[in-house]
Amino acid sequence: VASLDTSGLIPLLVLSITMPPSSSSITESEGEVEEEALYLVIQRISGGRLLVDEDNDTWINLHNQPGLVNYVAFGRRKAGSRSIHTNGSRNTLTSSSSEEEEGKSSSAATPVSPLTKDRMMKAAKSLLTCKLATASGWHADHSDAESLVTLSSTTVASVVTIPQASLVGKCIPGDKYMKYHHQLDKDRSEELYGQWVSILHHEALKLINPKKYDDKNKRGMEKYLRRAEETLIDPKEMFKTGVYQGKYSAFNEGGFPLLLADGSDIPKSQVKKLTKIFNAQERKWKAAEKEGKDCNNKEHHINEDSTEIISKNHVREERRPSATSATTIDSEIIVDEGDLGRLHMANGTFGGRQGWEMMSTGPFTHQLVF
């Protein structure tokens, strides 16, 4: 299996090339049942910039936030079909089949075992606890590697999730075409991607803040995630989106609602409540803006040359007439809330335009299948 080091460029392809077994191979077939599988390619990063809203061209800046990016895809693989390839005294175990080697699509009647929540939870725990990240430059033997959970206990860290259906691709030796017969359909993949993002957050909260995790479970993770998402909104836009969308028809310059959707006045009791919510959001936003500026002024501890180049690039990004400044604030609000401590989570767009700019002192790439 060969993983292509793309240094952050997308789309990302992982070529899974299976050579036919020799005459000394021993094959054990235990049925034709297939199972859904989670395919990950993980790269170490020292920072980056991710598109999170295609329509509004909204990006999240993860400046000076070392961590990992996980490119994720969902596909089918044979369940229970194993080939033990013998090469002298050395054995290798693969999950290939003759159909997979030829790149053929499996029959529509072939039963498929779904990807379970339990398996995804274990995969998320592995991603968060395996020693794959570093805070700065890396040692030749990777002895400085640490887990995301450990890294986030000492510095601001990030975990980025980007959907990449092309990971489930195969290339027959000698062929010049990629085959994607083992991909799941788009709707199912989108459903699983949403579950993966939610479970990754769920497991991170359990590992980093177990006390708050128990509290969130009592209130319901769905409600908690929705409220956490709402804290990332500019106060000027807060009453125009999310749960407030469509409730009001007029706003002042600061984004505070003036009239209800039907054009009538807002009751005084409701105005008082909305004022309290608005002021709290404004305080968080301003505090995060200050922290975001302080974070962007910090220097990388990699080396002086790369630090100077990266810093100049950040200055240019901040001058762009886009949502860059706001998205820097977005990443800091999570710290202000204290839910995941210093660990920031950012998720790429599904099924449309994607954008990802990354910095790395050495990608340190791994391919995992769960």
TrEMBL record:
Region (Disordered): 81-116
Ranges of Polar residues composition bias in the record: 83-94
Key words of the record: Signal
Stretch forming the signal peptide: 1-24
Gene3D superfamilies in the record: D-tyrosyl-tRNA(Tyr) deacylase (3.50.80.10)
Name of the molecule in the record: Uncharacterized protein
Natural source organism: Perkinsus olseni (Perkinsus atlanticus)
